[in-house]
Design brief:
By secondary structure, the chain is an alpha/beta fold. The protein contains seven helices and five strands. Helix 1 packs across helix 7 and helix 4 crosses helix 6.
Length: 188
């Protein structure tokens, strides 16, 4: 487990799939990693919370968040050591911060600090214009637009570079590839 929530240094371009639940982030992260012959970082919270739910039918508590944040940054740091091109992150600590604020009306100071401090080259902000899909962990189908706005305002507040991704899954993928190709040409 990570001692802090700091990213390790890396030469790879880091792209975060960002936005509310059930907007296609996981699927798109996998597809983009395949397209660019690279790797992606899965969402640690999903595995952690699914196990908690399966074992005890319990949902996320505020006390879970620091463990989730440490697990997420550990996965990202491990993946960034293996990556030499583009690293796709299914989530980041800014997402953890947002959900902490939405569900608990507060955020741990360490999560807050590193959510803002850690650097990514691009955020792909996923719109809520695709159908919401129920699972054991998702619980806000009627608040998607409000949560989307919270995600967007958080990016803007912290001056994070982002592009809006919307439309069908194919349109999302093609638009993401176009944006990432432009980013690669700027960075190289």
């Amino acid at each position: 487990m990570e001692r802090t929530l700091q990213q390790t240094n890396s030469n790879c371009i880091k792209v975060v799939l960002f936005g509310p639940e059930s907007t296609g982030k996981s699927t798109l992260a996998k597809e983009l990693a395949d397209h660019y012959n690279s790797i992606y970082v899965e969402e640690y919270a999903r595995e952690y919370l699914q196990k908690k739910y399966d074992l005890n039918q319990e949902i996320c508590s505020y006390d879970d968040l620091i463990s989730i944040a440490k697990g997420q940054i550990r996965l990202e740091n491990e993946a960034s050591k293996k990556c030499n091109s583009i690293l796709f992150c299914d989530t980041d600590l800014l997402t953890t911060k947002i959900y902490s604020e939405i569900y608990f009306d507060k955020c741990d100071h360490l999560i807050n600090e590193y959510a803002i401090k850690n650097k990514y080259d691009l955020y792909l902000l996923m719109d809520v214009d695709i159908p919401w899909v129920k699972d054991d962990l998702r619980d806000k189908p009627n608040e998607r637009k409000e949560i989307f706005e919270y995600f967007k305002k958080t990016l803007e507040k912290h001056n994070k570079t982002y592009n809006l991704i919307n439309g069908s899954f194919l349109e999302r993928k093609l638009k993401s590839i176009e944006i990432i190709d432009k980013l690669i040409n700027i960075v190289i």
